[in-house]
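User: Here's a chain of 323 residues. Predict its fold as tokens.
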Amino acid sequence: MAEAGDVPVGPLTATLLTGGRSNLTYQLDDGTSSWVLRTPPRHGRTPSAHDVAREFTVTRALVGTDVPVAHPVLLCTDEAVLGVPFTVTRFVSGAAVRSSADLDALDDADIAAVIGALVDALAVLHSVDHIAVGLEKFGRPTGYAQRQIKRWTQQWSLVGDPTLTPLARELSDRLAAIDFVEQGAGIVHGDYRIDNTLLTLGAGGARVEAIVDWELSTIGDPTADVAMMCVYRHPALDLVLGTPSAWASPRLPDADTVAGAYERATGKPLRDWDAHMALGYFKLGVIAAGIDHRYRAGATHGPGFQSAAVAVPELLKSGLDRL
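Assistant: Prediction complete.
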């Protein structure tokens, strides 16, 4: 950190922050300033997942844009330092609305303001010219849906329950047969929902102070990013997270209402909506299978991981229902 220009004034203490089901997040404090350190799990890692280098690259590129991000300090890929690669960012003050209890502290007007702020922040992200900010090599601008189908199908082969493979294969095959209409390319977060943001609420409404958890980000079709946000409204998200979550709460607008708010914010229609939703359900199903894989490998930290396996068939079936 000193070499990167953020010099701690004293010894650092680290506190594990809860809420994550993939990368581990710690708050670092020196008694005066605070930072956030992110690492992948030490065991049960799979290729392309837990990519802290990806998080560092995209947030560094977005500094100076209107997209709210935590200021990146450093990326260390030398595993001799902590045993895993890691990133450090400056700490951002803001509320993390993760649980249904967190959401219940907000009244209906607050919730409406938060939904508006979340949709607007995602629209701002999608409006960024990825080439202008130096992310021209961050991902390929075409064929996003087919690459996602291939990627998550491969991931399933590494972490999926063999008894559910026929169901996963049916969904994968049906998705692969769809000729997705592409509406252009932009930066996609890949994991966007309320608990992957830090928020402030005041007399002027709600504000997103930072979008966090960028490990699945790439260049792709913004429609898929909106669909993933809406897929997370499925009640099975509570099983994936192992706790009653804010984003799956019935107090929030349903998926299609959120999608409509995005269309109004951008003035652009969301094409192939059901197909993108089905792809999102497939992706979340594989993510849940990956959480269960790490749980069975003994690589998880904290309670709630054992419920992820229950979500997998529900999500795969929801994807097929959308098709």
